[in-house]
Design a protein that fits this description.
- It contains 6 helices and 26 strands.
- By secondary structure, the chain is α+β, with helices and mostly antiparallel strands.
- Helices cover 17% and strands 43% of the residues.
């Protein structure tokens, strides 16, 4: 087998799919990229035991066809140091010895038999299908993934929940302390369906989608999903189990509504939270007419901080505590200049909403309060 390919083109695709490869693999061949020659297309696959990514690039002067697996470290480290140039791959079909020729030299190593590379499981006949734009999928994942959990005892929380209905698509993520629900009414399904996308493929999509145009096709059954983009395909195992009823935890009647300048409030929280107890990260908010008094203290080290920010509020005064790191994280992900804080009482969850939603979008973020000693 033989072919010629641009070094930079090959490297950029290898670096993208290479993010799938785990640092420690139970199956040694998964440390490799799988190359498959098909006419003038080179198919490249990288995988771990649960996720795989496939891409293809155009190649020239192709001779032969076949499958072989190349150690990812050898290839990535060597190509990284090469300036842009055409490089020639020559593969001995008998012993899979590979020579890579470039302008002033060559690399040489032995590949592995590509037939030993684990194959992906096809979808069941009753699989569901969904089409949406790359920008809509990116928005859904980007708005929610930060709120997903890392709890081995509750695996269903460790990903983004896709809730598809004939009226809208809802992306949800929660770790039990914070929850994000993002609705998009421009995406609809033929029937009611849902799946939980694990954090790893969700993060891979978040990295790829900004460079993708056009439609994304998602096919999924109860175990696996195939996500097909213009230049990449991600195949992943889905998280099995029933996602909790997220609507049940969202408080409906919140009489206290506070409108804040998001950036001012966020920067004040960042300054004050430096002085909070590192273990609890407790921030106390005293909300009164048109102002929020933010305070934090660490009794162990006798440090404290307080700051007042302006807001729009004309209800009764109240005090509520939140974990500062979570509140900062939520405000970092609110996409509008102003945010609305909806509260009922200090023991019930607070809602953080953007003052303005994008077209066809509805974003809601929820944060559980912390008990105040006083």
């Amino acid at each position: 087998m033989k072919f010629i390919v641009s070094s930079n083109l090959l490297l950029s695709h290898l670096q993208t799919v290479g993010r799938v490869i785990a640092s420690k693999n139970s199956i040694p061949i998964l440390d490799c990229f799988l190359f498959e020659l098909r006419g003038n297309q080179l198919m490249i696959t990288a995988a771990d035991t649960e996720t795989r990514m496939i891409t293809s690039i155009e190649i020239n002067d192709v001779e032969g066809s076949g499958l072989f697996a190349i150690p990812s470290k050898n290839l990535l480290e060597s190509l990284k140091e090469l300036p842009e140039q055409p490089i020639t791959f020559e593969i001995n079909d008998e012993n899979l010895e590979i020579f890579i020729y470039y302008e002033n030299g060559k690399y040489n190593f032995i590949a592995q038999d590509g037939n030993e590379y684990p194959q992906s499981k096809p979808l069941n006949d009753d699989a569901s299908k969904l089409e949406l734009s790359s920008s809509d999928l990116l928005a859904g994942i980007s708005r929610t993934i930060f709120a997903s959990g890392d709890d081995e005892l509750r695996p269903v929380m460790n990903g983004v929940f896709f809730d598809i209905t004939p009226e809208e698509m809802i992306f949800v993520a929660s770790d039990g302390h914070k929850l994000v629900r993002f609705k998009n009414t421009s995406i609809v399904g033929n029937e009611r369906a849902s799946f939980i996308l694990p954090k790893k493929p969700a993060n891979l999509l978040r990295n790829i989608l900004p460079r993708e145009d056009g439609q994304v096709s998602i096919g999924f059954d109860s175990n696996n999903a195939y996500i097909t983009m213009e230049r990449f395909v991600i195949v992943c195992r889905l998280i099995e189990g029933r996602y909790p009823n997220y609507n049940a935890v969202i408080p409906q009647d919140n009489p206290y509504k506070v409108t804040i300048d998001r950036l001012n409030f966020l920067n004040a929280l960042k300054r004050v939270s430096v002085f909070s107890n590192p273990g609890s990260s407790l921030i106390k908010l005293n909300i009164s007419e048109n102002s929020i008094f933010i305070s934090a203290q660490d009794i162990d080290f006798s440090t404290s901080a307080e700051e007042t920010v302006a807001c729009v509020y004309d209800g009764a005064a109240m005090s509520i505590g939140f974990k500062g790191t979570y509140l900062i994280e939520i405000l970092n992900n609110v996409p509008s200049e102003e945010a609305i804080l909806e509260l009922a009482d200090p023991s019930r969850a607070g809602l953080i909403l953007p003052a303005e939603n994008g077209e066809n979008e509805d974003l809601l973020m929820l944060l559980m309060p912390m008990m105040l000693n006083d």
